[in-house]
Amino acid sequence: MDREINNKGQSWVQLPNGYLSRTPMFQFVILCLIFPLWGAAASLNDILITQFKTVFTLNDTATAFVQSAFYGGYFLMAIPASIIIKKTSYKLAILIGLLFYIIGCGMFFPASHVATYSMFLAAIFAIAIGLSFLETSCDTYATMFGPKETANKRLNVANVLIPLGDIMGIVLGKYLIFGEGGNIADKVAKMSKAEAEAYNQHLLQLTLRPYKYILIVLIIIFIVLAITKMPRAKALSTNADAQEAAEEQPSLGETFNYLFHNKRYMKGVLCQFIYAGMQTTVWSFTIRLALRLDSHISDAAASTFMIYSYIAWFFGKLVANWFLDRYSITKVLTWFSLLGTISLIITFTIPNITAVIAAIVTSFFFGPEWPTIYAHTLDQIHEKKYTETGGAFIVMSLIGGAIVPTIQGRVSDLSGSMQLSFIVPAICFALITLYFWTEHRWEKAHPDEVQEH
Q1: What CATH number has the domain bearing residue 420?
Q2: Which one of 95, 156, 406, 445 is most buried, counting C-beta atoms within 10 A?
């Protein structure tokens, strides 16, 4: 019989494998409220890319460095975040993440005065450090926040809120950064050099506006979390006495050896890498695709397409959750990925605004991808003492969000066609379809080894 650890006054029972006997709802709601915070930061990047392209006179490849700084921070800090989780707690790692997020937002104020691309990239990198801590902590924490059999469902529920954060970010960007209307590039093209420099400085000041509101929300969440008792939700040694239970602390080398030799886990990490790159590049270039296909559209109007994309993403999550409750997750994800691939094929082949609509539809099929890949990959770790570092590796795979947009930007520059460059994410979605199809075949061949159903 499983040994249980229960502290006086708490409503949950800590199980030896790290999961909880039940989900403490108040604490889970607090945890879920953190998820949209990184969605807001990510969607603002799509606005900043359009803004910086004109202000700093950048080509498509150079603008992708916004995402490189963003996801590079994720990559570099995921393992340090996992180490902190292993040695302390999920709660402390989340508080550190929120603190770095606050610092990064604050850096936009001096960056707007220094007015250099590198300074803005530094601020974005600082935010990404915070988000790396948050995702490494929150994604894994959500899976452990109750019974094991509902881990995937909890993560999908928490992830439903991310599109709301994305919508919040893009709305703040649309009305606070693009609020003056018109097309920035067209305005600058008609100005003298001195006028253009003054206007560009004005545009950089506008970037401060959304981060002021985000800072207020971050500080409130930080304070509420700091004063709330949160579950430990970490695996306990199964061979120790119940009164002297100690957490197993495998070395980093032992953990790496276990994870790297876990082939199904590593395939999941690679899939997440591809997905992160695909999602980022589609959203990074959708606004610019609209501007290229319709020269009369304004930057603010083009940003509305991203609002539609995030709404589609939100409903995609809701619909996917309904299917995931009734069918195999690998089967559901195979179909979602296949239909998403078809949408992207339409995006790079139909030479009119239909391509933008297809890109928006693609976001619907993004709905279940990230949380399901994450939970499915984490489920391949049968020795739960490796869970924290395993989760960190999955978060590190977000570096795909730095690499794939750069590839698409390069394809766009070399071909001279923003639309044709969408062949890059189409290939990515096709590979993800192949991954889930092979996983579904494996599960049908090994039904007794499927843990998620």
Answers
A1: 1.20.1250.20
A2: 156
Predicted local distance difference test score (pLDDT) of residue 38: 87
Three-point CA angle 244, 247, 249, nearest 5°: 140
Residue 190 structural domain: 25-233+252-445
Q: 79-83, 307-311, 357-361: which has the minimum mean pLDDT?
A: 79-83
* Chain CA centroid to CA 213, Å: 21
Q: Kindly tell me if the per-residue pLDDT of 2 is higher than 90.
A: no
DSSP 188-220: HHTS-HHHHHHHHHHHHHHTHHHHHHHHHHHHH
Distance CA 44, CA 421 (A): 22
**Calpha distance 340→349 (Å, rounded):** 14
**DSSP structure string for 8-40:** TT-SS-B-TTS-BSS--HHHHHHHHHHHHHHHH
Residue 408 lies inside a defined structural domain of this protein: yes
pLDDT above 70: residue 278: yes
For the whole model, what pTM was predicted?
0.76
Q: Give dist(CA 139, CA 141) in Å, integer.
A: 6
Count H helices and E strands in the chain, helices first. Answer: 19, 0
Of the candidate ranges 1-5, 78-82, 136-140, 212-216, the one whose mean pLDDT is the lowest: 1-5
DSSP 8-state code for residue 5: B
Number of domains in the chain: 1
Dihedral sign from CA coordinates of 250, 255, 261, 265 = positive
Question: Does residue 11 lie within any of the structural domains?
Answer: no
Cα torsion 375, 269, 340, 298: sign: positive
pLDDT, average across residues 337-345: 97
Q: Closest Cα to residue 204, out of 139, 119, 128, 82?
A: 119
- Tokens standing for 422? 């969408």
Number of CB atoms found within 10 A of residue 40's CB: 25
108/2 Cα distance (integer angstroms): 50
For 235-280, the DSSP string reads ---SSS-GGG-------HHHHHHHHHT-HHHHHHHHHHHHHHHHHH
Which of 322, 407, 310, 307 lies closest to 364 in space, CA to CA? 310
Does a structural domain hold residue 18? no
Q: How far is CA 158 from CA 36, 142, 231, 254, in A?
A: 9, 7, 17, 31
